[in-house]
Amino acid sequence: MFAQSCSGCHGADLKKGYAPDLDKIGSKYSSEEIQDIIEKGIGDMPDGLLKGEDAKKVADWLATQE
């Protein structure tokens, strides 16, 4: 899901895209906070790219990136 919906902006390695790096996102935000950002958007990131269980799965995975 990350590869399909997020890597185009954030980079496949979580840090070589034009959007903010995500390789250490778990040290800054909890899974719940990341899910909220995914679902509602923030800054230039649009809302609704992923929702519900899909957003939760990506958020849980990103929260492990420290």
UniProtKB/TrEMBL annotation:
GO terms for molecular function: electron transfer activity; heme binding; iron ion binding. Pfam families: Cytochrome_CBB3 (PF13442). Keywords: Electron transport, Heme, Iron, Metal-binding, Transport. PROSITE patterns: CYTC (PS51007). Gene3D superfamilies: Cytochrome c-like domain. Signal peptide: none annotated. Residues 1-66 form the Cytochrome c domain. InterPro entries: Cyt_c-like_dom (IPR009056), Cyt_c-like_dom_sf (IPR036909), Cyt_c_BACSU-c550-type (IPR012218), Cytochrome_c550/c551-like (IPR051811). GO terms for cellular component: membrane. Heme c binds at residues 6, 9-10, 45. Binds 1 heme c group covalently per subunit. The keyword Chaperone does not apply. PANTHER family: CYTOCHROME C-551, CYTOCHROME C-553-LIKE. This is Cytochrome c domain-containing protein. It comes from Caldibacillus thermoamylovorans.
